[in-house]
Amino acid sequence: MKRKGYFKLIVLIFLFVTTVLILATFGIFRLPKGEVVGSKSQLEQSATKTSAQITAKESSAQKTESQESSLGVLLEQVENVENKCITKMETSGISPSNSTETNNIASNTKSNSNTKWELGKLYTSLPTKELKVLLTIDDGPGIYTDEILDFLKSYNIKAIFFGSSDTVKKYPETLKRQYEEGHEIGTHTYCHRSFYKLQKTASIDEMKRTLLSDLDKTERNIKDILPEVKIRFLRMSEGYYRDWVGEIAKKYGYVNMNWSAAGGWLEEPDEKVIKMFKSAIRPGMIILLHDGRNRGKRALKILKELVPYVLSKRYTFADPKEFF
Ligand SMILES: [Zn+2]
């Protein structure tokens, strides 16, 4: 009986071992391992996917943030349209066409058969084919304006000063002097606002309202100092022009004036700029120089070389009044 019991035990052990071996052979035990690997793989894929989704979500969130930011800027800009400048251009010698060539010499040769200024019309040269040039000086007054005025007086040259409406208040005596010495006081709009930038977000109606408001403010600032002045010339910041600008200018009684020669001379060496101006001389040329801060020093240097040269070529400096 005892031996029979041992035999049964051995058979059971044998069956157990055999069963284990059979199961192992058919990979039954590996299945769970495979599943785990598969699961891990799926998890990894899933994790990657989740990561990608998160990245996409983040990207989407960033996009939304950026869109909101743009919207915020847009709203702020629209809100500010009537109130204050949203842009300030520090380098205003840029030609409106933005091309390198015309940056130096504007190619506008609109038919100037009429030898009188037409209100609202845009000029980049004088309404004459005579050997005359016109001097215009933007963005002043500044600390060098008096020296510029002394120099112009010594040659009896009359210019148009398109001052900065923000800074005229700081130099009331200089503004008065400009006027009293026979120069024209032009409007350069208010705080040098860039309508090129504004038009990216604002409607034409908003831009029109802004320009009207800017022109009013500028007229007020200038007339606070010179109540008797009649402003007759408009130079938009960066030479911005659209037909609606011309219409508004006409209503205000302004001649719209850009220039023939200016260029990105703020970055160029003095000698190169002077050479450029000399080579750009032609009948009716409108010269643009910049005053304000230390720019006036450079304007003075250019004038001291350019004026004698222009005169030596039998040209004269036109008085802007002579075309009214
Ligand atoms: Zn300017």
Overview of the molecule:
- The chain folds into 2 domains: 2-30 and 37-49; 67-323, Glycoside hydrolase/deacetylase (TIM Barrel, Alpha-Beta Barrel), CATH 3.20.20.
- It has helices at 2-25, 30-80, 100-104, 145-155, 172-180, 195-198, 204-225, 243-252, 270-279, 295-312; strands at 122-123, 132-138, 159-163, 184-187, 233-234, 255-257, 286-290, 316-317.
- Strands 2, 3, 4, 7 and 8 form a 5-stranded parallel β-sheet that branches.
- Helix content is 51%, strand content 9%.
- It is of the alpha/beta class.
- Residues 25-83 and 88-112 have low confidence and may be disordered.
- The radius of gyration is 38 Å and the shape is elongated.
- The chain contains 10 helices and 8 strands.
- Helix 8 (243-252) links the parallel strand 5 and strand 6.
- The protein binds zinc ion.
- Zinc ion binds at residues 92, 138-139, 188, 192, 237.
- Residues 92, 138-139, 188, 192, 237 line the site of zinc ion (ZN).
Structural class: alpha/beta
- Which distinct ligands sit in these coordinates? zinc ion
CATH architecture of the largest domain: Alpha-Beta Barrel
β-strand number: 8
Strand content: 5-15%
In CATH, the topology of the largest domain is named TIM Barrel
Which CATH top level class of the largest domain fits?
A: Alpha Beta
Q: What oligomeric state do the depicted chains represent? A: single chain
**How many DSSP H or I helices?**
10
- Quickly count the domains: 2
In CATH, the homologous superfamily of the largest domain goes by the name Glycoside hydrolase/deacetylase
Low-pLDDT segments:
25-83, 88-112
